[in-house]
Amino acid sequence: ISGGGDNWVWLPSTQTVDDNQWHHLAYVWDRPTSHFYIDGVNTGGSYSSFDHDLNSSDENVYIGAGNDNGSIANHFDGNIFSVQIWNTALSQEQIQEGMYADLSGDEEGMAAYWNINKGDGTALTDVSENGNHGTIHGASWSEDAPAPPHEGPEWYVSTDGSDADNNGSEDLPFATIQAGIDAAEDGHTVYVSPGIYVENINF
To answer: Does the predicted model carry a pTM greater than 0.85?
Structure first.
């Protein structure tokens, strides 16, 4: 995230994320301290504060790139599913509760909510009541999206499923029986669709 002019700052986390999987990232700025959360877990460490006034109407806010005196640079190399900005410092519990929640945009403290999971063109709509609409520069829309969490007790496997992208639910089945077994707990059931599965099963 970057403001106008040359006032952007790097905020590297202490944890590296380069596994080509979806992750939930949260940066909480609560003067005088700030925290970085990856998948709802505080990564520890000390981070610089982001001193740009996001409420200023005189400057743009850039997400997924840096603004170096008017030149947009250092683009984020990856997919972004949604972006939220809150006007209050969320606790770790609040972050974990909202990671996979179906938010409406009118939650108390929600300053902006860009749901980037579908669309076309260059318009980016803020679905909060604040109308902070944006413009997409140099990015393209993708149908790739993170699977919501699934905890059973019923797990599904299909030859057209995916262990990497799906969560094992009926709508998003795994591709291997082993993935279903690994996800299941005592008392759970793994349903396997008809097909040919070539694998060594480890119970």
So the answer is: no
